[in-house]
Design brief:
The chain has 155 residues and is of the alpha+beta class. The protein is built from 3 helices and 10 strands, in the order αβαβββββαββββ.
């Protein structure tokens, strides 16, 4: 129950997003995406706050490699950095790097670029098959329509 955890602590707990629906109270989550997200959150438990992580989002559809199907996960840091993590370790996705290798890459990125709770941190980080870092993208504001007194519309 939410009341068992003080509000100040709840904001630092891992959040699983992108899951629609939920089982009746007291029932197990049967969605494999939830199980994979919980596995990743549990393995990152000791470093979750230190890395400034906020949420885990599973893919909506599984990836397919041969006869194997697995969901991939994205982590989101409090500063907005999106981390392409890949499948949960128990998925045993063919060719996927070990959990410890991905975590080491993420830690190397933090050492090089700084904490992930800053707007100066990278926009994207991919720890699958190496370390790839992308810049933070700034959205261009939508154009506003302005009316001139004569009724002429100018953009």
């Amino acid at each position: 129950p939410a009341d068992d955890v003080p509000l100040i602590r709840r904001q630092y707990l891992p959040r699983i997003t992108g899951i629609v629906g939920q089982p009746p109270e007291g029932q197990r989550w049967e969605d494999p995406r939830v199980a994979g997200a919980v596995e990743i959150a549990a393995l990152l438990g000791d470093v979750w706050e230190g890395l400034h992580l906020q949420e885990i989002t599973p893919s909506t559809r599984p990836e397919v490699a041969g006869t194997e199907q697995y969901f991939v996960y994205e982590l989101v840091a409090r500063g907005g950095t999106r981390i392409q993590w890949g499948p949960a370790p128990r998925a045993r996705a063919p060719g996927d790097d070990a959990f410890a290798v991905k975590l080491q890459r993420l830690n190397e990125c933090v050492k090089q670029y700084g904490p992930l709770d800053s707007i100066d941190s990278p926009g994207t980080i991919n720890v699958r098959g190496g370390l790839q870092v992308g810049p933070r993208m700034v959205k261009k504001p939508a154009a506003r329509m302005v009316s001139k007194p004569e009724g002429e519309v100018v953009k």
